[in-house]
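hey can u check if this looks right to u? its 97 residues, i copy pasted from the old doc so theres a chance i mangled smth
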Amino acid sequence: MTTPRLTVDSIVSRAKRLLDLEVHGERVLIDTASENYVGLDSVGGAIYDALAEPRSVHDLLAHLTSLYDDPAGAMAGDLLEFLEAERAAHRIDVIAG
């Protein structure tokens, strides 16, 4: 069965098993289940900060466009692509949608 793609109406949150740490001045997420880690840039950090609690992709997009000078239409595709990759890596949970 194919997993449905995320939409702006999807509700997502960061996976509970992630540790959020600073290592040598870089922010990293460590997956406690797989022991894999990923470094975050400032935009990735803003996304994961915003996903501490479940929220819709639409609300997340509105939050990010308030922080960064980028029109929502241009950012929406990039955000959905990023979230799909994070879902595939099990770093976000999809609550609904």
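The chain has a mean pLDDT of 87.
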